[in-house]
Design a protein that fits this description.
Layout: H1 4-26, H2 30-36, H3 41-49, H4 56-65, H5 70-73, E1 86-88, E2 93-97, E3 105-111, E4 128-135, E5 138-142, E6 145-149, E7 154-158, E8 163-167, E9 172-178, H6 180-190
Helix pairs in contact: 2-3
């Protein structure tokens, strides 16, 4: 654990870099952001360069001018940038938690069976889902429509539309992203995160 003074110093430096990075991303000069934040150009320059103390009222004004919030402006750096997958060997799944929204899941899975022909086996539930095909060919059934997805193609759809996913012409591997509602819907339907008939070890 870092000493408190070191933590404060690192946060101070991070906030200054973030202010400059947000300004540059907007394509604004020092003068333009200073005008928007009702600061002098020299004051803003000293804030960015660490030659002026960061005052709370100025940070609030700068956050507003940069179209962000004070919380986002002073958010500390995270230590867990790299996340390892959780392995579900029973269902042949790898799952990555999405830190920005704990309700979301990223799931990688291998499919060998085509999607079910019987419409009664298609799922529908609140939420939204996004998937990309990593290898092979996937078939996405949405209502009465059939979509063929090759490697590197992606699809996004509302999960209130009856849907099913499977493979065509051999195994395929997909990466799926579920929002909170979509994940819950699959869990309620199958006791799992995806359509059980389509999953293989």
């Amino acid at each position: 654990m870092l000493p408190m003074t070191q933590e404060i110093g690192e946060l101070d430096s991070l906030v200054r870099k973030r202010i400059r990075a947000l300004r540059v991303a907007q394509g604004w000069s020092l003068e333009e952001l200073a005008t928007r934040a009702n600061l002098s150009q020299s004051s803003l320059s000293r804030i960015e360069n660490g030659r002026r103390r960061l005052a709370l009222d100025q940070l609030v004004t700068l956050a507003r001018a940069l179209d962000t919030t004070l919380d986002q402006l002073v958010e500390t750096a995270t230590d867990d940038v790299v996340t390892s997958p959780m392995i579900d060997s029973i269902h042949g799944l790898m799952r990555w938690p999405v830190k920005g929204d704990p309700g979301m899941s990223v799931i990688r899975q291998r499919m060998t069976e085509p999607p079910p022909d019987n419409p009664s086996r298609m799922r529908a539930h609140p939420g939204r889902e996004w998937l990309v095909v990593l290898s092979g060919t996937a078939i996405l059934m949405l209502g009465h429509r059939r979509f063929r997805l090759e490697a590197n193609q992606a699809a996004e759809f509302p999960t209130m539309m009856p849907h099913a996913i499977g493979a065509e012409g051999g195994p395929c591997e997909i990466l799926g992203i579920f929002d909170r509602d979509a994940r819950r819907g699959h869990q309620r339907a199958n006791g799992d995160d995806y359509d059980t008939p389509s999953i293989s070890e």
